[in-house]
Amino acid sequence: MTSPLIGVLALQGDVREHLAALTGAGARVTTVRRPEELAEVEGLVIPGGESTTISKLAHAFGLLEPLRARVRSGMPAYGSCAGMIMLADKILDPRSGQETVGGIDMIVRRNAFGRQNESFEAAVEMAGVPGGPVDGVFIRAPWVESTGALAETLAVHEGHPVAVRQDRLLATAFHPELTGDHRVHALFADMVRTAR
């Protein structure tokens, strides 16, 4: 069986790092900037960056509605940091005009762990990821305020959910793509393979 083709939404954020992590996890990768590119992939990563900017650019590139449609139809998606915000059904404190793709029944709070200069790293025990804790890099990271019945919390830091899964959707408040540890990306690649 061929490796799954996984796209990385390449509008803004740490695109190269996700491409490298997915490749390290055994996936075939491509960038996604247009609806026709989105139609070709079996799964999608929404990278960390600035969630308001990603939202506005997705709208400007005509990608927001196609993204919502693909997620609703069962395409696996993984969002890290800003990507977590994009996959949330609701943002507690959205910027004016900020929209999400949605799909995970959760409410997130933007920049919950603090500003840029309060960024930190922490060991995070994450269900579904064997081999001990992952190194969580938290940069202006969100946290999950609450989840609905269908969303499963995979990891908690300081009492707040920081990794959540709902069916074929995965989200982390931290950036595993910045660590050289590809286990979270391997989990997502397995989710894409299973969805086939």
Question: Could you please describe the fold and organization of this structure?
Answer:
27% of the residues lie in helices and 31% in strands. The protein is of the alpha/beta class. It is globular and about 40 Å long. 46% of the residues are buried.
Total beta strands: 12
Q: What distance separates the N and C termini?
A: 11 Å
- The secondary-structure class comes to alpha/beta
Contiguous helical run count: 6
Query: What are the secondary-structure elements, in order, as H or E?
Result: EHEHEHHEHEEEEEEEEH
Q: How would you describe the shape?
A: globular
Q: In percent terms, what proportion of residues is strand?
A: 25-35%
Largest sheet: spatial strand order: 2-1-3-4-12-11-10
Alpha-carbon Rg, integer: 15 Å
Summarize the structure.
With 196 residues, this protein is of the alpha/beta class. The protein has helices at 15-24, 35-38, 51-60, 64-72, 82-87, 183-195, and strands at 5-9, 28-32, 43-46, 77-80, 88-91, 104-109, 120-124, 134-138, 143-147, 152-157, 160-166, 169-172.
